[in-house]
Amino acid sequence: MSLVAYAPASTANVSVGFDVLGGALAPIDGSLLGDRVLIEKGTDDYSLTCSGRFAHKLPADGKSNIVYQCYLGYKAALSEKGMTCLPVAMELEKNLPVGSGLGSSASSIVAALEALNALHDYPLGEMEMLALMGKLEGEISGSVHYDNVAPCYLGGMQLMLEQGALISQAIPSFKEWYWVVAYPGITVSTSAARAILPAQYRRSDVLAYGRHLAGFVHASYTNQPDLAAGMLKDVIAEPYRQQLIPGFKEVRKYATQSGALATGISGSGPTVFVVMKELDQAQRLKSWLEEHFIQNEDGFCHICHLDEEGARVVGTQL
């Protein structure tokens, strides 16, 4: 038996919700923007191979790969339930660049765990899985946060709650919005992007953050897209992180002139996102970004809607 699990790219923070808001991404052309993991019963306890566009960016030592940590974590979780993990052979198809701001590590983690859980007939529930995903993500970034793994796993726009066993819930999203995401081809590490942030914030910034986040969630539930777009302002990270992204100010200026509802940094960057209302505007912006923002052959740009499905089994072979 073999199966392939897919986990979509995600945009964390979404400007207004630092560490507490994230959305999964689905290109409107039907392509899959995210990592895939093939799993089958193996002859040894565990084996891993890697393929895909960005496989060369992964550690040469397979036991340094996050997928191995997923296997160990899942095996331990099954053991706590009195169950035994099957011997598995896994292949990670690495389609997202590392350090891109598109939830690359989250995509690998979620795809691997979704594959493992599916192979074992889903013994772990959603919140058990999400807790394990957050723990593994924290081992990479240095702190547990769910704003990539939650939308990647559950789909849609997710609000992190972390109330008891409830980690995250979906909030309504605007189906008419186009999310133009552009990765320039350079790397910004999450740890470096966090290190550049101040240790303390002014009271006015904290109040603005709370107002914008509350306003966005309220507008999402009351179907007020213009109000929601107006709330997409980042006073926590963008003022400091924009210096790590060459051309960000030019992107914001051009996007605004082109009718953008909002522009922001996806996760820790360097990917930027622009919310557009009209498809023709989004297509013109995509062409401009490909010419003026993307720096090398590793870069790319996609027009997306939110991926409402999240992680899923997509077939039996890569």
From TrEMBL:
PANTHER family the record matches: HOMOSERINE KINASE, HOMOSERINE/4-DIPHOSPHOCYTIDYL-2-C-METHYL-D-ERYTHRITOL KINASE
All copies of domain GHMP kinase N-terminal, residue ranges: 65-156
Gene that encodes it: thrB
Residue span, GHMP kinase C-terminal domain: 238-293
Binding site for ATP: 97-107
Family membership: Belongs to the GHMP kinase family. Homoserine kinase subfamily.
UniProt cross-references to InterPro entries, sorted A to Z: GHMP_kinase_C_dom, GHMP_kinase_C_sf, GHMP_kinase_N_dom, GHMP_knse_ATP-bd_CS, Homoserine_kinase, Ribosomal_Su5_D2-typ_SF, Ribsml_uS5_D2-typ_fold_subgr
EC supergroup of this enzyme: transferase
Catalytic activity line of the entry: L-homoserine + ATP = O-phospho-L-homoserine + ADP + H(+)
Localization per record: Cytoplasm
Name the UniProt record assigns to this protein: Homoserine kinase
PROSITE patterns, per database record: GHMP_KINASES_ATP
Function: Catalyzes the ATP-dependent phosphorylation of L-homoserine to L-homoserine phosphate.
The EC number(s) this enzyme carries: 2.7.1.39
